[in-house]
Amino acid sequence: MKFKSQDKQNQLIEKITAQHLVVGIDIAQLTHVARAVNFRGIVIGNPLSFSNDEEGFQILHRWIQSLQAAHNFNSAIIGMEPTGHYWLSVSRWLSEKQFEVVLVNPHLVKKNKENRDNTPSKSDKKDALVIADMVKNGYYSFIRKTSEAFEELRVFLSNRDSVFTRLVSAKNQIHRWVDVVFPELRQVFKKLMCRGSLATLRLFPTPEELRNLTPQDVVRGWKSIMQRQPGNKKAQALIALASHSVGSTQATHAYKLHLKQLLAEYDLACEQLQDVETEIIAVLDRIPFVKSMLAVKGISAISLAGILGEAGDLSGFVHGNALLRHAGLNLAEASSGKWTGQMKISKRGRSRLRRFIFMMTLSLTANNPEFKAMHAYNVQVKKMKKMRSLMKLCGKLARILVGMARSSEAYNPHKMMPFRLAA
């Protein structure tokens, strides 16, 4: 089955008829602005400013109805930018009122702002008109309505990203603290975030405290919070290095308080990360086609949850290429006359979805025999650069995931391998 993006673009344009009132809304935190045009782009009515609450939405509703009645429109389509989270309330309210709500790309709004007046000026009223123009020209996308499970995955993955950022930040600050106060600790523990190293930082963080202890005291301290201890040999080495430490000896109390807070932040982030990943696994169990996908070697639960959370129900995509366009992984050509530029990915889509698809592809090329063979064939036989091969395999992965979701079939290695490779 061939998927042509131009066919979809034509359908979006044809959807706007002479009976449509096209409304563009410039989204803000407190006050939105709406403009209306007909299917030819002729401005209808005056601009409307309305508040981001029930009263404001009712004013917008009456404004749309009055314009429809005055110009004999029997349908309305409303476009807006997905600006932060401020668009969610108004889009949900309008959808409940049976209006068709669509989204436009903020990047395209910026590029199209000079179409009307040939000036780089910018205002809320002008942006709302630009959005309305883009909708009547077919430059919009539909809001993908998904079940509660996919919405939960999106929220959990966003939460996980936030927790993971805090965890990495705490780790980096602990590394810096060690470099300043007790750099010799790295000679005893190769991994600074291992259990033995963290136990040492909790019990006797500064070299000054270790100098006054015996190896037995150190081991006894480790035993109080660890079931398996590094041992007497490492305790002796730790004390010996502490006796000749070059770390800072000033502001000891301040450094110890700082470390205590960093360790508390690290523990909290680890606990929260475990909690949210447990919830993610529970949500995945409720989605029918997930079990067959997780059976594929190289696909992890977190990466699959990231894709499903950002893309929603994959069975709603007509082809894997549609998923690539949703992620911004579709190819963009640059050519003019005899000159042909380099093909690049468009990056006009969900960045988090793009990241999860790429990371899953990396995992598959390292662990999955079929993807590993295809990657080797692309690099060694077809002489592709490694990154180009990975981008091509991202497309293969997208088609496999969409195909499995639509058909509810299990992964078939022989079906996805090219004939010349399988032979």
- SSE class: alpha+beta
Strand proportion: 5-15%
The counted number of beta strands is: 10
Radius of gyration: 29 Å
Tally of structural domains: 3
Order of helices and strands: HEEEHEHEHHEHHHHHHHHHHEEEEHHHHH
Distance between the termini: 24 Å
Strand order of the largest sheet: 3-2-1-4-5-6
Helical run tally = 20
The CATH architecture designation of the largest domain is Orthogonal Bundle
Share of residues in helices: 55-70%
| Major sheet size, sense and barrel closure | 6 strands, mixed
CATH topology of the largest domain: Helix Hairpins
Gross morphology is elongated
What this model shows, in words?
The protein has three domains: 16-142, Nucleotidyltransferase, domain 5 (2-Layer Sandwich); 151-281, Helix Hairpins; 290-334 and 341-422, no CATH class. By secondary structure, the chain is an alpha+beta fold. Strand 8 (335-336) and strand 9 form a beta hairpin. It has helices spanning 5-15, 54-71, 87-96, 106-111, 124-136, 148-181, 185-188, 195-203, 207-211, 215-225, 232-243, 252-284, 290-294, 301-311, 320-327, 351-367, 369-381, 386-407, 413-416, 419-422, and strands at residues 20-26, 31-37, 43-51, 75-80, 100-103, 141-142, 331-332, 335-336, 339-340, 344-345. The strands form three sheets. Strands 3-2-1-4-5-6 form a six-stranded mixed beta sheet. The protein has a two-stranded antiparallel ribbon with strand order 7-10. A two-stranded antiparallel sheet has the order 8-9.
